[in-house]
Amino acid sequence: MKLPITGGCLCGKIRYEISAKPVNTANCHCRTCQKAVGAAYFPAFFVPASALTITGDYKEFASIAASGNTMYRGFCPECGTSLFGRNSKFTNIRPVSAATLDDPSIYNPEKDMWVADAQPWDVMNPELPKFVGNPWK
Ligand SMILES: [Zn+2]
Ligand SMILES: [Zn+2]
Known about the structure:
This protein is mainly beta. The protein has one helix at residues 31-37, and strands at 5-8, 15-18, 24-28, 42-48, 52-55, 59-64, 70-75, 82-87, 93-97, 112-113. It starts with a strand and ends in a 24-residue tail after the last strand.
């Protein structure tokens, strides 16, 4: 995987750069992810917090995640793209939406999480390990 990894929102106002490889990758099917990104799941590219550099004035929306932790979801106030998050418990790691990468094809999900919340029309890769909730306690 070529570094740095870059990405941004639909309108281009918010850009980010990631200087390290992801530490985990997972499709999150939780209900709050569904609402926040307007899709069946959030393709989470988990990167070290210190490796993520963001440019542009993004906004954050805080809500209680299925885990009970507070999730701060960063989005572009101009175009509404949901880009990345901050979890109140896992402060060293930040989930970035793989769909917002400049080259989303580098994303290789390793697992499905919060499958208990998945919709009946959600299609998952049967070969990936499935976790009812959060795989990391
Ligand atoms: Zn934007
Ligand atoms: Zn989620």
